[in-house]
Amino acid sequence: MIALAERINDALPQTQCTRCGFPDCKAYAQAIAQDNAPINQCPPGGLEGVAVLSKITGRPSLPLNPDNGTEGPMTVAVIDEAWCIGCTLCLKVCPTDAILGSNKVMHTVIEAACTGCDLCLPVCPVDCIEMVPISNERTGWSAWSPELAQQARKRYEARQLRVLAEPTEEDTEKISKQAIIEAALAKAKARQKS
Asked: Other CB atoms closer than 10 Å to residue 9's CB: what's the count?
């Protein structure tokens, strides 16, 4: 079962777009391998992707499920720098860390790292992000390559490790409270010594 899930994951475009209804390509691959999801829920993979998944799983090929979106060209996010307010909301949702910037500073996109997942669009409060097609008429897997998918997968996995290593707001608040308590105790001890 694990080997099947890995083969399925290798066949997905690794956009991590969540359009399949799962949090990432790996989770979708595992659901397919466990027969808990149909093979036609990946719009970035398109009909060619469904055909590949059909061969891997032995299931019949199906039309792409329109509830998950439509097949289209490969796109990348472009930020209108004149409108960007530096809110950092797009940074938090980008699955491949393809957006650079910091709080109250204009953001930009590393085009080669953007998978066109569209996850940055709904969170932008000023609608300064546009998805621009870069694959001309090519759609689905004909717009991707195994090399692009592998690069996206590596960037996604690296981001996941980075996010796990970062302290949460709760951790930061707890550390701040501990620092305040320690400072107060140190101050009290210093008074006792005087």
From this structure: 20
